[in-house]
């Protein structure tokens, strides 16, 4: 008797049962035993059974062509060609539109060298389904492989009567060209276009009738590539006059409304091959004057290459650069402070004109000083000066380069802002000119006028490369006087002294650094100092450093790092020291408001005890771990109104005496919940309780 008639939480369907049975393969049948046929009677019996199986499959679903194909292929494997033919014929009666069926049937006949049967099948296939190109390709290929060129040509002729796609016509043309029948290939083109013209004669204008009458594939598929193919065909066979006429008719056909740069590029290259350079120039000029500039990039590129090969330099400059220069001139006239336009213009003149012209454009560009003395307005402008100086240096004009840098430095209002890049580039230029005093003078002037971190770093790096360590020390002193809060500078200065082997000086630098009232990254500085002492194996000094750092901050990561240092010290008392640090940290962080940090400390302590501690210490740290509880608190919006409640997690630590009532209440709540679950289970299944009591 079922007492609980409520529906189960998880419902199981019949479909799920079947799927699980299939996945687990509960009804897995053993594979059939291998059968060895020893006499004719067994063979006939085997054939009978297999044929019955195939026939049953066909009878169940006649439209599944794969069953017919498998049946026929099995008969073919037994060399029962006649039976296989019968099966294919029966299948064609069911679905004569199936392309695969025809292909398999014909392939079987060709495989067994039944050429006439294969021809018969291909004839029936192309008669029944003339729009299936695969049949025609296979048929013509078979005839060509058999050496029956006339038969293959006849099949192509039948195919062309259906006016197929352009690839079919190209296949026919390539077939004729393989046998050196150029006139026949041209005749195919003419017949094709003639048939198209007769069908579409009312739609064509009379002025184009004669041109269309002798055109090729390009009229049926009027794409630029087809016109080009036809012209190249004529060119390949040395009919240059015909090829030129094709290009001219193509230009006339597309007119000025549908001009394409590919056609003109191909036309120009054809004339270039014929050494007709004046014709090439006329074609390029005609196309560039009529095709929009954004659509004629390739045309312009090819025209440039042609002029570089066969024209003079003046012609190249006048034709290629003139239009772009005109555009840039218009842009800079409209807005002289459009520095991007000046950059493009300068790149153009640098690549194609003489040095005097380039200098003139640079002088015009740098004359447009930003009207407002704010650095954000000068950031693009200053690169005009940089590019000008680099150009002069590359032109081997050292004197002019120095004048450009000096003029730029005089122009910048250093009292309001400066550009460290200019000073550093000027110094690097003087070094390349082997003029070290001028480079040092420039960097010294920059530090005196407008000190910046980047200038100090660049100057120090220069002196380091020159191995002038005393100068580096002086520069670091000036740098730290300028920016005493820069921790990176203190660290680099100390590292320099460490590399030079002056450990006491490096330690003194670190002491000065940590004594600064303001630091941008004090944690990085302290870590570097501690790592320095560890590298010197000064463990007592490292401990003192940690103690001094803990007087400033009680951050949990400092305590954990201190403990890990004691653990890695490698001495006998390292474990006890590490445990003592964890205990001190735990006591110190009892009053910490960030309970997550205290939890992080205890977890680090527990991982330490799990690896190195005893059972007693492990039990002790487990007792110190807090209880995680969920609480709610009221939220207030910015205007002071109630914004609802939010849930958050809080931690209750056993050590905190103020939280002992909360822990006791939490334990009582857990016990009550457990009792409730047990009573509910007893009410649901009382028989189970009786059985348990009896047992």
Automatic annotation (TrEMBL):
Pfam families the UniProt entry points to: HAT_Syf1_CNRKL1_C, HAT_Syf1_CNRKL1_N
Annotated ranges, domain Pre-mRNA-splicing factor Syf1-like N-terminal HAT-repeats: 53-193
Region annotation Disordered: where it falls in the sequence: 674-695
An example Gene Ontology biological process: spliceosomal complex assembly
Localization of this protein: Nucleus speckle
The keyword Repeat belongs to this UniProt entry's keyword annotation: yes
Entry GO CC: nuclear speck; post-mRNA release spliceosomal complex; precatalytic spliceosome; Prp19 complex; U2-type catalytic step 2 spliceosome
SUPFAM superfamilies to which the protein is assigned, alphabetical: TPR-like
Domain Pre-mRNA-splicing factor Syf1/CRNKL1-like C-terminal HAT-repeats: 226-375, 390-547
Gene3D superfamilies cross-referenced by the UniProt entry: Tetratricopeptide repeat domain
Bias kind Acidic residues: ranges: 680-695
Chief site of localization: nucleus
Coiled-coil regions, chain positions: 532-598
Keywords on record: Coiled coil, mRNA processing, mRNA splicing, Nucleus, Phosphoprotein, Repeat, Spliceosome
Cited InterPro entries: HAT, HAT_Syf1-like_N, HAT_Syf1_CNRKL1_C, Syf1-like, TPR-like_helical_dom_sf
Function: Involved in pre-mRNA splicing and cell cycle progression. Required for the spliceosome assembly and initiation of the DNA replication.
Similarity section: Belongs to the crooked-neck family.
Protein name: Crooked neck-like protein 1
Species per Swiss-Prot/TrEMBL record: Pedionomus torquatus (Plains-wanderer)
Originating gene: Crnkl1
